[in-house]
Amino acid sequence: MVGIILLLNGVYANELLNKNNISCIGENQSISQLQGEGHRSPYVIKKGSKRYRSDLFFTVKGVVTKLKLGRNAGFFMQQIDKSTLSLASKGIFVRTTDMTNIKVDTNVCVTGVVEEYYGMTQLHPTAEVIVLGDAKAVAPTNIVVATVDANFRETLERYEGMRVRLVNMTDMRVTKPLYYDRRWQRYNIILSHQQINIHPNTAAFPSSIFADQHALNNKQRRLYLQLSGRPTLITKSDYIRVNDKVAGVVGILQFSYGEFRLVTDDQVSKIQFTHLSDRETLPPRTTHHLRIASFNLLNYFNTVAGGTHNPLRQNRGATTRLALHRQETKLVKTIVTLDADFIGLMEIENNGFGKNSAIQRLLSLVNRQIKDPDKQYKMLQPDQSDLYRGRYLGSGAITVAGFYRPSKLQHVSTRVIDLPIQRSILGNAYHRPALTPTFMRDRGYEKESEQLTISVNHFKSKGSKCVADKQRSAMLKKLRISSRKNNTSLQKWQRTKLKFKQDRQGHCAGFRSLAASVLAQSLARLGGDKIILGDLNSYPKEDPLLVLTDYKQARYAYYKIKGSTHSYLGQQLIDLKLDNGFGYHDPFINENTDSWTYSFQALGRLDYILVNTDLLSDVVVKKVWHINAAESRLLNKDKGFLNKIAFSSDHDPLFIELK
Q1: pLDDT > 90 fraction of the chain, expressed in percent and rounded
Q2: Burial (0-12, 13-18, 19+ Cβ within 10 Å), 380
Q3: Strand 342-349 and strand 290-300: pairing?
Q4: Beta bridge partners of 580
Q5: Number of other residues whose CB lies within 10 A of the CB of residue 37
Q6: Torsions phi, psi for 390 (to 5 deg)
Q7: Distance CA 623, CA 348 (A)
Q8: For the segment 157-199, what is each residue's pLDDT rounded down to a tens digit?
Q9: DSSP assigned state of 243
Q10: What is the spatial distance between Cα 298 and Cα 334, in angstroms, rounded to a whole number?
Q11: % helix, strand, coil for the chain, step of 5
């Protein structure tokens, strides 16, 4: 007997343990049987009640494919089964904090109950996990869409918990390039099956059936590619771009917070990116049309170069002279290449108009690169009486600006249109003032010049909350606490939460809608042609754009647009009815799949050049220049770890030309 034990402890035992057919005492199911072919385990589903755990105990065997430490610790295991008849996943997550002696590429035997944990099927051990010995590494399974899959999300469900590989046949496209998720402190790339994802409110108004369906389609195609660590350097030829086809990635497919996530140990430099659309170059202008452009600069601050202070004494931009030089090199190159006769600029430091201001510095750098005096720019400078404290355009750290060519536009005046301010015990919110110059435009073939007013804007962002958002959050918190009392309270909380989520406009939509109305009413008092441009922080069919363009309740199925409470112009409380749009036109509206200027979870357009009706027929050229949003912002950080290549912002510039 002792001899047998010694023998088993020797080389013959290792040979036995290396075999995948090693016995697991009490094994009564396979992992694929626990997973089932549906979205939930067949052992957790029970009619008439909400169930998250099986009544029965199961014992299964598998090979450990990945350890997960920290929050919700455990490990992934996968059965070794060559059968291809079942469409169920062969992998599962084992939730446990006790992983003594558990290593990748070992055979384990687990006894426990099956759980559905926020949509992910997992195994919760009720006894000590038994390590059976070493095993061969599990070969990754290629993700292939089956004919029975109604959508790509169903395909991913069949591989949940498994070690998988993306291949060319999987047809995954980059929807959001490499970015850093601060909340979870990890690096992601958002992929989409067969095509890039466009924001639902691009072509359908918020909360509509069409927007909901679009959002669902986006979700059914989406896959987060989650890098396990800090990405290494990539070369200029290996850059990642929107719509790139991705293959060669190996990782474990997980499901958390409502999304499938492929967690990979592969470095970015090892992943195969096939460029389906290369970087865009902008050819030189060949016409004499009037070119109008809009460009968000992404926090151009000259603080580190001796710039004067902004009202908040903040520096949101470059923190070193080297970083500022890199940023300026890219910004100047972009502006000079755009070759616009007027360019509206957003996110420039609000530190006045003097020689040490960011506006003056940028203007000087741009003009230094333009040899032809007729193509050099002047900056817009409002009257001192229109400025905050006689110095600043608004009271924030950033503001808007404008450059124009006197050879093409004869400056008449520059107005500052104050937009609403929200004041409440819950906090204040602001828009940047609208910088609104009026020019006389020489059409050449006309006897008289025509008046043209251009308003440069940057509406309140979607990120931070306004009063209505804070009130909704407080209401949801109250309902969530009371939801523990009974099913009725629980259902009320869930319905209310769903209602607030479906809008997809982000925070402060009503506040932006009010700003749109105030702006359009102010412009209505002026004669001549008008253009509204800038970063309006709204997608094309969201409330602020509907107010500026074609909104009528009958046209939008009685969709009601509401402004915001606690909003003031000066000391006067604003109470405006938003019943009708102001008739501006968006020349890019019919090019929604290619007119995006910003990438969040999906691609969309936040930047606009809107024209009045008389000008619409004069628009002969329109273009979004995809040089920034199509690629990763990480490549532009002053303390970044990737090669610095030609990006200047997180927004794409766009322009039109008027005949």
Answers
A1: 74
A2: buried
A3: parallel
A4: 552
A5: 14
A6: 70, 5
A7: 23
A8: 999 999 999 999 999 999 999 888 888 788 899 999 999 999 9
A9: T
A10: 13
A11: 25, 30, 50
Residue 365 Ramachandran class (φ > 0 left, ψ -120 to 50 alpha, else beta)? alpha
Residue 36's region, left for phi above 0, alpha for psi from -120 to 50, else beta, is left
* Gap between the Cα atoms of 655 and 252, Å rounded: 43
Residues 70, 72, 74, 75, CA torsion sign: negative
Place of tokens 């400025």: 387
Q: The tokens of 371 are what?
A: 């040899």
Q: Do residues 439 and 410 make contact, with C-beta atoms less than 8 angstroms apart?
A: yes
373 bridge partner residues? none
pLDDT, residue 85, reads: 66
Contacts of 186 (CB under 8 A, 6+ apart): 180, 226, 227
DSSP classification of residue 104: T
Amino acid at 433: P
- CA distance linking residue 24 with residue 107, whole number of Å: 9
Q: Would you state the structure tokens that stand for residue 255, as one six-digit string?
A: 């499901």
Q: What is the pLDDT of residue 490?
A: 87
What six digits make up the tokens of 240? 């990642």
At 309 the pLDDT is 97
Phi then psi for residue 514, to 5 deg, are: -65, -40
- pLDDT tier at 46 (50, 70, 90 boundaries)? low
Q: Bin 637: left if φ > 0, else alpha if -120 < ψ < 50, else beta.
A: beta
Ramachandran angles phi, psi of 164, nearest 5°: -130, 170
Q: Which of 450, 369, 466, 440 is nearest to 615 (CA)?
A: 450
d(CA 151, CA 145): 9
What are the residue ranges of helices labelled H in 450-582? 467-482, 487-501, 509-524, 543-548
Q: How many residues does the chain have?
A: 659
Instruction: Find how far residue 331's CA is from the centre of its chain.
Output: 22
**537, exposed or middle or buried, with CB in 10 Å at 0-12, 13-18, 19+?**
buried
> Do 249 and 174 meet the contact criterion of CB atoms below 8 Å apart?
no
Average pLDDT over residues 434-457: 86
CB 188 within 8 A of CB 179: yes
